[in-house]
Amino acid sequence: AFTTMPTTGPAHLSLFTGLYPSQHGGTRNAVPLSPQHARRDAALQLRENGYATGAFVTSWLAGRGATGLEGFDVYDEPHSMLRPGDDAVDTALAWLDRNPGRPTLLWVHLYDAHAPYGDIGEKGRSFPVDDKLYGWIDEERFASGELSDQLAERYARGVRDADAALGRLLAGLRER
Questions:
Q1: Around Cβ 62, how many Cβ atoms within 10 Å?
Q2: Looking at the DSSP assignment, which residues form a beta bridge with residue 55?
Q3: What is the pLDDT of residue 147?
Q4: What percent of the chain has pLDDT over 90?
Q5: Are strands 104-108 and 74-76 parallel, antiparallel or unpaired?
Q6: Nearest to 13 by CA among 53, 66, 50, 89
Q7: Which of 33, 56, 75, 165 could cross-link 64 (Cys pair, CB 3.0–4.6 Å)?
Q8: Residue 137 has pLDDT above 70, yes or no
Q9: CB atoms within 10 A of CB 74
Q10: Cα separation of the two ends of the chain
């Protein structure tokens, strides 16, 4: 997979509009979709054509205010900075149960493996993100040692949590 930009917000806007960040105006996190491109929102176009549209996100950076995406019937986002992927999956599956038989656009965003590494509590205590730890990492600096081992374990835990949440989502979709 390739991204239009390695920054969360602009990349999401590109996914939903088919435009590059230089075109849709979101060139940094929390810069919402330019109003002049609101009609490019795939969720809006699908909703207008009879689809149920639901967004279930785990970071405020993917929230409605940060993205400006207005096409979702339901935009379920964390009440604080983050929430576990399991919460988004539970809410998304419950929403699907309330919308059976309709064509659906479902966006489930999982932040579990994203820096800062660790569970939601550890992540919350690590904001703002320390660029020395999570910026453009010098691999040699983290080749060995206690910090390297801690970060590797926290990252692996996040990947396992995201994988488990995604597995539950896929199983739930198959059941439905």
A1: 24
A2: 75, 107
A3: 80
A4: 70
A5: unpaired
A6: 66
A7: 75
A8: no
A9: 15
A10: 28
